[in-house]
Structures are given as C-alpha cells and as structure tokens.
Amino acid sequence: MLYLPPVEYFIALNKFKPGILIEREEHFPKQTYRNRASICSPDGVLPLTVPVIKGSKNHTKIKDVKISYDFNWQRLHWMSLQACYRRSAYFEYYEDEFAPFYENKETFLFDYNTRLLELLLKLTKIKTPLTYTETYEAEYPALTDLRSTINPKKESDLEQKPYFQVFEEKQGFFKNLSIVDLLFNQGPQALNYL
User: How far apart are CA 158 and CA 175, in angstroms?
Assistant: First the structure.
C-alpha cells in the first residue's frame, strides 16, 4: 500500500483490475513509496515523506507501522500540494476531497494509505475490488507480483506520454510523479490517460 502512488502504479492497477491483492503482512521495507511520494514543484521534483515511528523499521509488519506526528508533516504536505498545484486546472475541483487527509490523524500508515487509495480509485474512476493478504508469501507464482518493481530507487521503465504539468515550461516534463500530479492537471481525463 503506497502513499500517493506514482502514475505507474495506477497504470498497473488499471491493467490488472479484475483482481488486486494488496500486501499487508510483509515487513516494512525502507525507502519505498509506502511512505513517500514525488510531486512537481517550481524547483523540480519535490519528495514528500510520511514519517513513521522509529521502531517501525525493524521487522514490523506493514499493517502495524505507526505514523509519527512529532512534527506537523501533514501541514507541510498540504501546503506543498497547495503551492505546487493551486494553478493547475483541477486542484480546486479535488481540494475538499484531499483536505481531511491533512487534518485528521490516522494511527497506522497502512490504514491511512488504504483510505487514500480508495479515494484515488474513486477519483480516477478505476473500479476494482481490493483484497488483502492474510499471510506473507515471498512469491506468488500464479500472479503478477509488483511489490518490488515500483520503487523510488529504481529508474522506471515506464514509457509515459507527456501531459501538461504546471511547471513544464520552466523544467520540462517529469515522468512517474504521484497520481495527484496527473489528477490535478488532467482531472476527469486521468482514466483515459491511464
């Protein structure tokens, strides 16, 4: 379960939508999209990270990882989203849907990401049932396993057609940003793009 997942994740969800199995029993892997996202800012790609409680990094199941509120990261993320996308075509259209995620405190990262994913699926109009693992399996031979393929430390192989981005004139097109970049810039056309 990823935080504001990249476009590549939603392309995969749309492709495999007859049945998506979400991993919730794995140990929390560091430096993944499970608690980070990338958005487009006037200065380039801006990473957003949801801080987790320190003990959450040592063999803690992803469903048990707790969000840290030692500093007001929600305010920082919301201000960043507003500053970066206020001029986009659809930010104001979706703003009220996202605001509660930066006001209400959720205890567990998995629950927070699940609620965000449900909203993002609704907004992108991807209709797919989500099911969750009951135990950890290292491999799923009968399924396409995407758990480690979409990673911020790996360059994406995704061939992505450019769409309008707010700061494109200044910096060019950035591929595979968070799905919110596509939503705020393309709105209801996001599903056609995916």
Answer: 8
